[in-house]
Every structure is written in structure tokens, then in C-alpha cells.
Amino acid sequence: MTEQTLTGPSTTTSSGAGSDTTGATAAGATFRVLLRAEIHPGMEADFERTWLDVGDAIIGHPHNRGQWLLRSEDEDHVYYIISDWVDEERFREFEHSEAHVGHRTKLHPFRARGSMTTMRIVHALGEGPR
Fold first, then answer.
1. Exposed (0-12), middle (13-18) or buried (19+): which is 16, by Cβ within 10 Å?
2. To which H or E segment does residue 102 belong?
3. Mean pLDDT for each consecutive 10-residue tract of the chain (130 residues)?
4. Smallest Cα–Cα separation from 35: which of 125, 108, 122, 93?
5. Does the model's pTM come out above 0.90?
6. How far is Cα 63 from Cα 122, in angstroms, rounded to an integer?
7. Which string of DSSP letters, residue by residue, matches 58-82?
8. Do residues 27 and 121 touch, judged by C-beta distance below 8 A?
9. Which residues pair with 74 in a beta bridge?
């Protein structure tokens, strides 16, 4: 039997009891943040460009496993951001850092409202978000 191991923004498969760089297996290894952002109408293109600018800095963080921007097909002006981290502690450190406050400051003018949900991956089948 193979177990999927998360080693970064993409996933790989290994035989046996795979582990990531923290020694945890795929189930429960990744701490995921899901943000929902309602963007002011007409500002979507600027929001996407700004997100790409700050996103490069986030994926360069040593404890970030990847980040994805998704646009809702059901709701106008709504985006979702998925951000994966090695664990909650490392995410919270980043969340309270000056760098992250700077990123939020750049994105804030585009947002009408938003929310954040955190979770842990329990099981992973196939490859991660693309």
C-alpha cells in the first residue's frame, strides 16, 4: 500500500509510512487556511495582480507549502485563498509577523468583507490543489 506524503506545494507518493520534513504523515500533517474575500466590484483585476505580488513572498516562507487563488463560479466578486502550512504554530507566527501585516495592508483596499477558516488535512487522495 502507498501513502501520500506532502512535501511542499505539490504532492508525491512513497511506499511505506511516508513522512514530510516535520516527520508527520499526510493525515494531519498540513495545516490549511481558507480565506473568503468579497472584492469591491471593478477591482478584481487589481486584486489578482496584488495577490500575485504578495503571494510570491508567502510561498517563499520556509514553512509555507503553497498557496492558491480561486475565483468563485457561483458568486460575483468572491475569491477563495487556500494556504497550506507545515503546522498551526508556524502559520500563527507568520500571521502575526510584520511581513504579513504589510501583505494585508496591500490587499485590504480591495476587500468589501471576508472570513477565515482553519483546518487540518485528515486524508489526501490524488494531487493537491492546482
1. exposed
2. helix 98-107
3. 30 33 52 98 98 90 95 98 96 92 94 97 79
4. 108
5. no
6. 19
7. HHTSTTEEEEEEEE-SSSTTEEEEE
8. yes
9. none
